[in-house]
Amino acid sequence: MIVARLLYFISILLSCSFGAVTNNNEKNASCADGPLGISITKESLNIQIGGKKWDHNLNEFIESSIQEAIESNPENKPDIVEPTPEIDPPETDVKNVTLEETDPKHIIKQLETISSELQNIRNVCQQSECVSASSVGNLNNGDICNRIVGISKPQLCDASEDNTGANKNIPRNCKEVQERGQTITGIYEIQPNSTLKPIFVLCDMETRDGGWTVIQKRFDGSEDFDRNWRDYKFGFGNLKRELWIGLENMYQITAFEASELLIEITDRDQIKAFAHYKGFGIGSEPEGYVLNVLNGFSGDAGDSLTEHHFKNKFTTKDLDQDKHPNNCAVLFSSGWWFNNCHVANLNGKYLNIQAPVAFTGLHWRDFRGQPYSHAGSRMLVRPVRP
Ligand SMILES: [Ca+2]
């Protein structure tokens, strides 16, 4: 249905751009030649053609488009049903697309792509992957915002919080939180990139001088790590329990300044081992969140990442980017930087027993061996200071 709605504004655009190309009458004089710019956010639709701009409230625009379509052709009515309840997509799904084409066929193609993207966003939300306030019990809004990582946060926290970051000098990571005087391990607000909304993260202010942003944490198997791309991208879990901070957050935190990685693995006797990398970073989503910076290993857990996982893209059960003929994320019930498939998988099944089949658990080859399924892990990142 969204597609049908958007096709209506496509027709508006086309009538305009056709006019720009073929006519010089007064009506179309405003549609100057030049690039088309379309910006769709969860609230607004902004169209620019040449020097002219149109700004619309997205929902109002869609509704008025439907009404006009009905009035112009009553036969349209049976095809248009009452709009389904709208759930705002996460801000990070916002699409900004600039159209450079002036060929109407190309414009149609690109607009169809935009409408398809928008529909995908809404479909995902309507499939209830956006957590609703009611699904987290009787927590007040502050509790919800502090406890939930990733996908649901923008939706839940918009109404009562200023999440734009405007006029707020928010630290970019837990190291900056620490540098501003915070010395207690806990939940803090950071903003890795000034163009994105701030997020709440868990900061470890104690381990090895503190200032660590916790990007992965497991200790009791309470969180399901057998998840799809969307969840691994935006993050999931609970800041006070088990969590995955999200690949996009990980990218924003590590890609723009030198960062180190500390991995802490806890075996079933509560003995901890460490793997420290002086350099760590991942690529962007178009790069498959590839593990593209990993160097300077030290630690008593052994290096189970570099040889087999460095330079590999991230794979989930719905996005196979690994080198195995099948999908490693399906085979091992988790998302990870799989190769063919793995010698370390901290997101593997939480078994906390000897793995019935080698590699199936929370696994790190060089600490306790292949069939061993560990009882816990943490991944922490921190910017490297000169
Ligand atoms: Ca594969």
UniProtKB/TrEMBL annotation:
Signal peptide positions on this chain: 1-19
InterPro entries: FIB_ANG-like, Fibrinogen-like_C, Fibrinogen_a/b/g_C_1, Fibrinogen_a/b/g_C_dom, Fibrinogen_CS
Organism per entry: Psylliodes chrysocephalus
Span of domain Fibrinogen C-terminal: 165-385
Keywords, in A-Z order: Coiled coil, Disulfide bond, Glycoprotein, Secreted, Signal
Broad class of where this protein is predominantly found: secreted
Taxonomic classification: Eukaryota, Metazoa, Ecdysozoa, Arthropoda, Hexapoda
Location relative to the cell: Secreted
The protein's name: Fibrinogen C-terminal domain-containing protein
Gene Ontology CC terms, in alphabetical order: extracellular region
